[in-house]
């Protein structure tokens, strides 16, 4: 009975909709759903995996600077694809773990708001539909990231299985150069135990970086979605309150003003949390799209369909990533802007001058919508989405012409 009620909640249960994110966070020792502040010990897995990722990044750059790689445009592009993705994962990991306390504050405030202001029957269907769509979008995103990781693992697993099942009389030589990433270690791998250790470290680190990628994007989508939902609830409560002539408008208005200020503060805190991540994503996404398109087309031309699947999946994830930030940031801007129209159409002209003054102040504040920015340099939204795709296409055509692909 309890499980069925959980599947179809009657109230806006924040823990239910953030469940996937919380479970994934627990894999790296972090939590945002409790009153206890995350300590340094809980950050150690993130710092450790990111340190390993930085070493891998250095080895990838060493490969690209190698004369053999420099003379091979295809290998350079393939290595560049992994390098850019690695930079994004590392930046998300460090920025996310350093902002976990602020994320806990936002999560707890969302829980308080959802419990304090229950949903009216008129908007329950709309609110649950919005929350469900975002949650499902996050699940599809997780599936895409897991698929990408599996594409990385498959060649290594096949290589190891062939080695284990081989007939000793065939004198089969094991390929110790085949690792998860395109990189150049400062030493030569000559034995299977050393090879298996290095590949295992790469495999665990790949999972950790996939977690950072997933959390950075989906948490932004979830937080902004539920902030938008709270704005919708606020607008509904405002309309219902001021159209009721028997209400004590002045007292209720003060409470509504406080709710509006609280939501604006949550928007500002959300921008503070994700702005560094957004900045790195906006800067690197065009390059990442470009190199993965070329990498996928090159792998297909060479008949390497496994690597083509890797690049195609990374390309899909990168597009999803841009959609996450641009679309959900645009929705937040629209919700904060639409509040002014809602308040303006209230029956406030018949109220006393004190209430009219408060209403006017709300309208003036709401007419200045909230914009989620990348470190304050530029707002993100549909226009930025178009700009990123246009820039990626320009990079692609330039590199395609240069490489004669």
The radius of gyration is 25 Å
The counted number of beta strands is 0
Structural class: mainly alpha
Roughly what fraction of the amino acids lie in strands?
A: under 5%
Main sheet, how many strands, which sense, barrel?
Answer: none
- Which overall shape is indicated by the principal axes computed on the Cα atoms? elongated
How many helices? 13
Sum up the structure in keywords.
mainly alpha; disordered N terminus; odorant binding; cell membrane; Odorant receptor; 405 residues; olfactory receptor activity
In words, what does this structure look like?
By secondary structure, the chain is mostly helical. The protein has one domain. The chain has helices at residues 2-7, 14-17, 19-26, 40-65, 67-70, 73-98, 100-116, 121-165, 192-242, 249-301, 305-344, 353-366, 382-403. It starts with a helix and ends with a helix. It holds the Pfam family 7tm_6.
Strand-helix topology:
Elements (H helix, E strand, L loop, with lengths): L1 H6 L6 H4 L1 H8 L13 H26 L1 H4 L2 H26 L1 H17 L4 H45 L26 H51 L6 H53 L3 H40 L8 H14 L15 H22 L2
Helix pairs in contact: 4-6, 4-9, 6-9, 6-10, 7-9, 7-10, 8-9, 8-11, 9-10, 9-11, 10-11, 10-12, 10-13, 11-12, 11-13
């Amino acid at each position: 009975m309890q499980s069925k009620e959980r599947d179809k909640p009657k109230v806006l249960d924040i823990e239910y909709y953030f469940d996937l994110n919380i479970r994934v966070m627990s894999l790296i020792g972090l939590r945002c759903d409790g009153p206890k502040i995350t300590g340094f010990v809980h950050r150690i897995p993130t710092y450790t995996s990111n340190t390993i990722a930085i070493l891998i990044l250095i080895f990838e750059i060493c490969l690209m600077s190698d004369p053999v790689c420099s003379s091979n445009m295809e290998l350079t592009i393939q290595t560049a694809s992994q390098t850019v993705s690695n930079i994004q994962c590392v930046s998300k990991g460090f920025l996310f773990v350093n902002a976990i306390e602020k994320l806990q504050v936002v999560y707890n405030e969302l829980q308080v708001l959802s419990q304090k202001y229950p949903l009216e029957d008129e908007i329950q269907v709309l609110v649950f539909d919005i929350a469900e769509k975002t949650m499902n979008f996050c699940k599809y995103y997780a599936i895409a990231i897991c698929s990408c990781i599996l594409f990385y693992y498959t060649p290594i697993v096949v290589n190891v299985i062939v080695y284990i099942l081989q007939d000793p009389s065939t004198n089969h030589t094991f390929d110790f150069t085949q690792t998860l990433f395109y990189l150049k270690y400062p030493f030569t791998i000559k034995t299977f135990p050393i090879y298996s250790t290095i590949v295992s470290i790469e495999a665990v680190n790949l999972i950790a970086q996939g977690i950072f990628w997933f959390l950075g994007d989906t948490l932004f989508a979830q937080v902004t979605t539920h902030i938008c939902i709270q704005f919708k609830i606020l607008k509904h409560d405002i309309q219902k309150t001021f159209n009721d002539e028997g209400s004590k408008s002045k007292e209720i208005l003060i409470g509504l003003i406080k709710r509006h200020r609280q939501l604006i503060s949550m928007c500002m805190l959300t921008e503070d949390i994700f702005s560094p991540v957004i900045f790195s994503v906006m800067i690197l996404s065009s390059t990442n799209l470009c190199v993965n398109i070329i990498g996928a087309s090159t792998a297909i031309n060479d008949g390497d369909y496994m690597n083509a699947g890797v690049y195609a999946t990374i390309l899909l994830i990168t597009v999803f990533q841009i959609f996450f930030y641009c679309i959900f940031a645009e929705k937040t801007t629209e919700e904060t802007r639409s509040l002014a129209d809602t308040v303006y159409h209230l029956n406030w002209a018949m109220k006393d001058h004190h209430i009219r003054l408060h209403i006017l102040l709300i309208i003036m504040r709401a007419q200045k919508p909230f914009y989620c920015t990348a470190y304050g340099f530029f707002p993100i939204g549909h226009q930025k989405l178009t700009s990123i795709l246009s820039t990626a296409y320009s990079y692609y055509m330039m590199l395609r012409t240069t490489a004669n692909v």
